[in-house]
Every structure is written in structure tokens, then in C-alpha cells.
Design goal:
- Involved in the catabolism of oxalate and in the adapatation to low pH via the induction of the oxalate-dependent acid tolerance response (ATR). Catalyzes the transfer of the CoA moiety from formyl-CoA to oxalate.
- InterPro entries: CoA-transferase_III_domain, CoA-Trfase_fam_III, CoA-Trfase_III_dom3_sf, CoA-Trfase_III_dom_1_sf, Formyl_CoA_transfer.
- The chain is of the alpha/beta class.
- It folds into two domains: about 260 residues, Crotonobetainyl-coa:carnitine coa-transferase, domain 1 (Rossmann fold), CATH 3.40.50; about 80 residues, formyl-coa transferase, domain 3 (2-Layer Sandwich).
- About 35% of the residues lie in helices and about 15% in strands.
- The chain has 18 helices and eleven strands.
- The protein has a six-stranded parallel β-sheet with strand order 3-2-1-4-5-6, sandwiched between helices.
- The two termini are about 40 Å apart.
- It binds coenzyme A (COA).
Length: about 425
């Protein structure tokens, strides 16, 4: 039987755009009752951003807000504040990712919330952590990637700092926040008290750039980085350079061309030269003579001519598609994968089967694809449901809070909900 471990946890989801919504969406999949609080009339800006169907919530919204309920509330109006106050008294967690100080200006500082409900966990995403010299800045994804060290270390050495397509600043921060919230929930079981949990986008990016801080210290000490393409023929400055498609660990790797690369921009595989797999690599690509050749048989010997080696592997790949190449290399236990497009991923049967990509039916837009839970449990199979329409659950939530129909109608009239 599938149980939902977060059932019974009530979350006020005061989040918008991507970082906060990614966090609360995941908690909703695992059973929490997530009430998304949105401004009447407009709601989360992503409902309208990059729409592909004129009157339907944009995919940007639907893919980050599944399994939630939507409550419209103007928290700058007195009645709105009163509703939020009641909600705080009955909830376990409040998650927000407003600009710095917005919650305080609304009258719901951490101290005020704690006074209303000492068990409350208040979880926030900001661009920079409290007390940082940039803590007054509003921040979006790419800003965080630049501030957290990802941009200066991504891309090619002869190009500008580069942004990753993966949401290192947004969804990644949301995942960090989810870990923080769950930790605070367990902490509360021990102490009976809530607490404030804060995650900054800069810190979350930096956490994923840990190996680049490793490299900075190695560079400071020895003046070069032996696994970077700049070694041994190029030069190093005193900062970690952009390493193109080099592997970040001790295993050299590169994106290599396969059959059809001249016309297909994604006819590539990622190929890794794992140290102990050198002999299988040589056998796989028909270069047995390299196995014991002192110019090839150690990582140190290979590095000065690593790109010639990659070139020879590309010659072997020239008559193989990326799929054929991986099917051969997997038999030799070589870590590799085809470079997959979003179209290929959307149609990948294995991802559909595992629930990593799911089709959801939405009241207005019909069927659409979304990314399901990347976390798999033996006793929980998250069921991904459609995102709510703006204010779809306002009446239900207000009734649960004890408001009469007349009071709800009055608040609708005044624009408070
Ligand atoms: N009722 C009434 N007012 C509401 C409301 C509601 N339901 N929801 C939001 N508001 C108000 C806020 O109180 C705030 O008012 P104030 O600034 O006058 O006090 C106002 O809306 C604007 O909120 P803000 O979050 O600052 O929006 P923004 O569009 O100017 O900025 C971000 C957007 C994302 C840049 C900013 O929220 C931010 O930096 N967030 C933290 C980092 C982050 O999460 N970035 C995005 C990652 S996807």
C-alpha cells in the first residue's frame, strides 16, 4: 500500500516563480496539504509568462505547482491579513520567496508569526543570505549562477562566463529548502518548537560548485590543474578557469562527435576515460596496442595528448550513431551516455515507466507533460496531479478556517480574496 509520509502537514505556500514553488510542489507530492496563496486577479506571475495557449495557465506555472490548492488573498488588506493570521495558527510551515523584507512589510515578521504559532516553521528563499553585503538584492536564476561561482567556471576558456540550462539557482535552491523544512519538522518533534529556515540562492549554487572551490585551493598551492584542458600546454592565471566539457573529477572526459554530427547538433556522446578502465577502452575502440604502451597506459602519460586520444575515439565513432556507440561501450563497462535532447527525453519510454516524466490532465489546457518525482520510494508512488486554477480552492480553505458563506462573499466583494 502506498502511504504519504507528509499527510497531515499543512503548508502555507507563499511562493512564486520557480525556487519556492519547486520546493512546495515536491512536499505536496509526498502528501503535504500545500495551500498556494496568490494575489486576487493575477496570481503567480508564471501563470501568464510564456503562454503557449492564450487563456490557459502557462506550462511554467503548471509544471511547478502540481498537487497544490490555490487560495487568493490580498494580504495587504485588513481582511486578507485576518485570513492569513487564522491560517498561520492552523499550519505547520510557511514557505516564501518574496523580495527581501516583503514579509516583514506585510506585518508577518518571524517574531510575529512565532507569537501566533510557536510551532510554525518559516522557510525562506532569498538571493543572498542574511547579513551578506548584497542581502538587499532581488535575484533571479542567472543572477544566482553568476554570484555562486557557476558562471565563471562554466563554458569554454575563450568565451564569456556561461549560464547552465539547469536551474541551479532556482529549483536547486528549492530542493535545499525542502531538506531544511523536513529537518525542522523532525527538530520540532524533538523540541515542540518551530524555527526559521533560510536558504540563499548564492549558497545553493556554491554548494554545487564545491569542486571548483576545491580547484581554487589546489591552483593556489601548485599553480596548475592537471585535469583541465589547459594542462599541460596552456597557461593558468590565479583563478579557476572555464574547462569546457572536461570532467570535474579525476576522470578525463569529453563530448565526442558521432555519426551525423555535421547536421545533427546533438549527435554526440559523453565519453569518460576512467583510469582503471583503460584496457577495456582500448579493446572497445580497437586500439589494443595502447594497453601497455608507456605513452598511453597511465593518466599522466595520456594527459599531454588527451585530445589526440579523443580524436582517435571520434574516428572510431564516425560510423556509429550515439545510440550504437553507447550500446557497444556499455559492454565494456565504460561510463558514457548519448547527449539527449528534450524531445528524446519527452518520448523516453523508460522515463515514462518510472514516473520521471508524466502526462497530466489539466482542466483548461488538457494534457501536458511534466517532470515527476526524481526521488523513488519503495512505499510511495507520488501521483502527480494538475496545478490548481487561480483561486480554485478559496471557498474551501476559507470554510475550513471557519468563515461563513456570507463572510466569503463579502471578502470577494471587497477584493480581499
Ligand atoms: N497580497 C498582497 N501583496 C502581495 C501578495 C499578496 N498575495 N503577494 C505578494 N505581494 C507583494 C509583496 O508583499 C511585495 O510588496 P512590497 O514590496 O510592496 O512590500 C510585492 O508583492 C512584490 O513582491 P516581490 O517578491 O518583491 O516581487 P518582485 O516581482 O518585485 O520580485 C523576485 C520578484 C523573484 C525578484 C523577488 O521576489 C526575489 O528576489 N525573491 C527572492 C529570491 C527568489 O526567490 N528569486 C526567484 C527565484 S525563481
Amino acid at each position: 500500500m502506498s502511504n504519504k509520509p507528509l499527510e497531515g502537514i499543512k503548508i502555507i505556500d507563499f511562493t512564486h516563480v520557480q525556487a519556492g514553488p519547486a520546493c512546495t510542489q515536491m512536499l505536496a507530492w509526498f502528501g503535504a496539504d500545500v495551500i498556494k496563496v496568490e494575489r486576487p486577479g493575477s496570481g503567480d506571475v508564471t501563470r501568464n509568462q510564456l503562454r503557449d495557449i492564450p487563456d490557459a495557465d502557462a506550462l511554467y506555472f503548471t509544471m511547478l505547482n502540481s498537487n497544490k490548492r490555490s487560495l487568493t488573498l490580498d494580504t495587504k488588506k485588513a481582511e486578507g491579513k485576518e485570513v492569513l493570521t487564522r491560517l498561520i495558527k492552523e499550519s505547520d510551515v510557511l514557505v516564501e520567496n518574496f523580495g527581501p523584507g516583503a514579509l516583514d512589510r506585510m506585518g508577518f515578521s518571524w517574531e510575529n508569526i512565532k507569537a501566533l504559532n510557536p510551532k510554525m516553521i518559516v522557510a525562506s528563499v532569498k538571493g543572498f543570505s542574511d547579513g551578506h553585503h548584497y542581502d538587499d538584492l532581488k535575484v533571479y536564476e542567472n543572477v544566482a549562477q553568476c554570484a555562486g561561482g557557476a558562471a565563471s567556471t562554466t563554458g569554454f576558456w575563450d568565451g564569456p562566463p556561461t549560464i547552465s540550462a539547469a536551474a541551479l539557482g532556482d529549483s536547486n535552491t528549492g530542493m535545499h529548502l525542502a531538506i531544511g523544512i523536513l529537518t525542522a519538522i523532525i527538530g520540532r518533534q524533538q523540541t515542540g518548537k518551530g524555527q526559521k529556515v533560510a536558504v540563499s540562492m548564492q549558497d545553493s549554487v556554491l554548494n554545487l560548485c564545491r569542486v571548483k572551490l576545491r580547484d581554487q585551493q589546489r591552483l593556489d598551492r601548485v599553480g596548475y590543474l592537471e585535469e583541465y584542458p589547459q594542462y599541460p600546454h596552456g597557461t593558468f592565471s590565479d583563478v579557476v578557469p572555464r574547462g569546457g566539457n572536461a570532467g570535474g573529477g579525476g576522470q578525463p572526459g569529453w563530448v565526442l562527435k558521432c555519426k551525423g554530427w555535421e547536421t545533427d547538433p546533438n549527435a554526440y556522446i559523453y565519453f569518460t576515460i576512467q583510469g582503471h578502465a583503460w584496457a577495456p577502452i582500448c579493446r572497445a575502440i580497437g586500439k589494443e596496442q595502447w594497453i601497455d604502451d608507456p605513452d598511453y597506459n597511465t593518466a599522466e602519460a595520456r594527459q599531454p595528448h588527451i585530445f589526440d586520444i579523443f580524436g582517435k575515439i571520434e574516428e572510431w565513432l564516425a560510423d556509429k550513431t550515439k545510440y550504437e556507440a553507447v550500446d557497444i561501450l556499455r559492454k565494456f563497462d565504460i561510463p558514457c551516455a548519448p547527449v539527449l535532447t528534450m524531445k528524446e527525453l519527452a518520448n523516453d519510454e523508460s522515463l515514462r515507466k518510472s514516473g520521471s516524466i508524466v502526462e497530466v490532465d489539466h482542466k483548461v489546457r488538457g494534457k501536458y507533460l511534466t517532470v515527476g518525482s526524481p526521488i523513488k520510494f519503495s512505499d510511495l508512488k507520488p501521483e502527480i496531479k494538475a496545478s490548481p486554477l487561480l483561486g480554485e480552492h478559496t471557498a474551501d480553505v476559507l470554510a475550513e478556517l471557519g468563515y461563513s458563506r456570507e463572510q466569503v462573499a463579502q471578502m470577494q466583494e471587497s477584493g480581499a480574496v
